[in-house]
Design brief:
- By secondary structure, this protein is α/β, with parallel strands linked by helices.
- The protein has a 5-stranded mixed β-sheet.
- The longest helix is centred in the first third of the chain and has 13 residues.
- The protein starts with 8 loop residues before the first helix and ends in a 12-residue tail after the last strand.
């Protein structure tokens, strides 16, 4: 008889997104993304961080201050990194698992790449213009988005 307590697809891919988020050096918001093909193959992963060649020790991680003294104008978001990390030919029909609902800029890129569904864990910035714009574009483009509903409280990793 087969094991019954195996991870379902949503748990598995959100787990990969969460594990990816743990690579982020952002002291406040660690975000991970996992892009998955229509046949449940992982296409790419990403997390929020500084661009290659821009030292995360030299660039700011602050949330407040003048624009050039905050992280916002420098950090690549997890979804954008996942798109840029992809080495295949197309993502049409794929879905993305992301730990935080995408901003408007990442949403534009996801739409352009042919992503058809977004599964997100947190929508803590739902009242911001960036997320309102993102949802407006997703609705116009006919792209589904849904909150991740965990089946279990925790996913345990051990060696």
């Amino acid at each position: 008889m087969k094991r019954l307590d195996y991870l379902k697809w949503d748990e598995y891919f959100m787990g990969i997104a969460l594990l990816s988020a743990m690579r982020s050096k952002d002291p406040n918001t660690c975000v991970g993304a996992c892009i998955v093909s229509e046949d449940n193959k992982i296409l790419s992963v990403g997390y929020n961080g500084m661009p290659i060649g821009c030292s995360d020790d030299e660039y700011p991680w602050e949330r407040e201050g003048s624009a050039l003294d905050t992280k916002y104008v420098y950090v690549c978001h997890a979804e954008m990194n996942a798109i840029l990390n992809y080495t295949g030919s197309h993502m049409k029909g794929a879905k993305v698992y992301v730990t935080l609902f995408p901003c408007n800029e990442c949403t534009k890129a996801l739409i352009q790449k042919g992503i058809t569904e977004i599964i997100y864990m947190s929508d803590k910035y739902a009242e911001t213009d960036a997320v309102k714009a993102a949802k407006r574009m997703l609705n116009s483009a006919g792209i589904r988005y849904r909150k991740y509903e965990p089946l279990n409280e925790d996913i345990q990793l051990s060696l």
